[in-house]
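Reopening this one. Same input as before:
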Amino acid sequence: MRVLLFGFGSRGDVQPFVALGKGLQGAGYDVTIAAGVNFQSWIEQEGLKFDPVHVDIEAVMQTDIGKNWLEASSHNPMTELQNMRRMVQVSATGIADDVIAMLDKYDTFISGVLTVEPMAAVSQARGKRHLIGLLSPWAPTRSGAAGMQAPLPRRNSVINYLMGYVVEVMMSNVLRPASVEVRDRLKLPKPSPATFMRAWNQTPALIGISPLVVPPPPDWNAFQQVTGYWFLDADPAWKPSAALAAFLEAGPPPVYIGFGSMTSRDPEATLQLLLAALAKSGQRGIIHSGWAGLNSESLPPNVFLLEGAPHSWLFPRMAAVVHHGGAGTTSAALRAGVPSAVVAHIGDQPFWGRRIHELGVGAPPLRRHQLTVDNLSETIHLLMSDAPLRQRASAFGERLRAEDGIGNAVRAFERFVS
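Same output, byte for byte:
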């Protein structure tokens, strides 16, 4: 069986699909990963086949449209949806090109949330199997712990359930441009909110999240399979640079601060804020430059500017982790067993920040537009000084490391396609 995993997005979106792909390949399937061309050498080094996605997400995120999505969106959910639709609009032709080019080469497709509806449509039209690979919970539920947009996050309520469907209707409008283009080219009927909701709620879904973090609620149907995280460990041969190794050896474990694929209109101001917060908290720090392009020729000796390192290697060596709340970074911080906090920008990031805090393994989340030197330094102080929180984070990491998310996902996949 030829299986394609459509890993559309940043490294955090693609890496779990690579981990799952390796698991499926080990079970005897012919696996290909579709992702941005900049990921080709990495994916092939992992022993998987590669098919290029020609939409450059990093380039789009660096445009005014991308930066507006990140910076204006955290103030208002409706603004976020409008900006996200503009992002999809400029990418729709490229997405359609790639989906149609891959259609006849594979037997089974696993798509991410952004390509669920067009993949569902073309799979049905051509008699292909289609599953969803999710890194966040999308299905409507009464559960506040599993409801990504739950108005009552600490309760089980029908209000949460209804909000799940409201969000699906809004997302159908956001993602509509790519679906329209794919369906038009294949002469299929135009999509409606109902077709989106059927695709999301009636397509078998492998959900790469730990049940310890998102307990599967009883009102989810049999299509929703929470498997555990899909971790990809660093190559055992990977070594840190001499400068990074020397910094880690020169003092106590530092605090990691990084916002991953989140870009910035003013990277210099962002960097100065992070440096001031570290100075006020009195902590050593590693700052990840990320897609924001944080850079400086002059840093205090207790701060290291990092271009990149595998989270599975780096995070266990940190005293605490402050990050943007991407699903992959969140899971890596939890698995490392160190306390963490989220500075949420968009999308599912506020949900992960909330869950970290609710689980008792991290600080209350912050929103990017509210980030200040004072509240970031207070967050760092809490992460460093709260001994019970640190103990809970360590114990939680041990439990996560005992899970077999990939094995569970492979077994669920085989049940769905048998």
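So the earlier flakiness isn't reproducible anymore. For the record, The longest helix spans residues 158-185.
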